[in-house]
């Protein structure tokens, strides 16, 4: 089986840990680089968290630290959802693993240009690193097969009334990315709010393996839902799309990112009905086979140590 080469840009974050597990252990994927960005918590913390997870899974994947702040705005984080550390609930062992010395956007460029085939970028945090990549190295766009991102919404938001967190944290970066001409798949709140793991399933994790024990401990501190009503796996949807695209219903449409609105900055304007008369620039996931998603999650976790 020919694997899909992948670069994962992330801001761990508890649901990011699930996405990283899936990127590492899904047989269809070849995770070649992990990069970090400020988002759920500071970039120093997201980098530490990503290194801890890579060490936990003994993964031989390089990591590069990325942007410490949005392009133009001060950072607003989500520590209230993920805990002050970003990975509250589990005590990881000490290790000597280090990030690369090159910044994330340069490390992505180097990996893209060295690849014998186009690479899929997966972005599950604010899009700052991707915007920096496209601004500094526009010539590398040809080496990007597609960008699959967790962000945005065709309806309501989860950070402001109309804006989803990842896009709202750095609207200027998101606007740059959606204008770039890249092939974009947007997994926004329309599907990620449906990607809920049930309390019964979550309760089985400690008996599964070491990964299940660790993830269950993290989930007990996650505020993306609750242990009694179910937990939303926002970021995991991007990996699910790569591995099992048939779980998703996508609509090809024009997406713009609002950057100026006093109350609407970070809103993704998703023109499902073509009212703006603009050419489509993204495929937007609008529906999810929830039972199929849950079955895939169980299969994927069974492959982890």
How would you explain this protein's 3D organization?
It is a single chain. This protein is an alpha/beta fold. It has a single domain, classed as Inosine-uridine Nucleoside N-ribohydrolase, Chain A. The chain is 34% helix and 20% strand. The protein contains twelve helices and twelve strands. The chain has helices at 14-25, 43-56, 79-82, 104-114, 128-136, 165-169, 171-178, 189-192, 199-204, 210-219, 236-243, 290-301, and strands at residues 4-10, 29-36, 63-65, 119-123, 144-150, 184-187, 196-197, 225-226, 230-232, 248-257, 268-271, 282-288. The strands form two sheets. The chain has a nine-stranded mixed sheet, with helices on both faces. α1 runs parallel beside α11 and α4 packs across α5. The longest helix is centred in the first third of the chain and has 14 residues, at 43-56. 50% of the residues are buried. The model has no long low-confidence stretch (mean pLDDT 94). InterPro entries: Inosine/uridine_hydrolase_dom, IUNH, Ribo_hydro-like. Residues 6-294 form the Inosine/uridine-preferring nucleoside hydrolase domain. Keywords: Glycosidase, Hydrolase. Pfam families: IU_nuc_hydro. This is Ribonucleoside hydrolase RihC.
Features:
Inosine-uridine Nucleoside N-ribohydrolase, Chain A; 9-stranded mixed sheet; alpha/beta; 3-stranded antiparallel sheet; single chain; 305 residues; globular; 34% helix
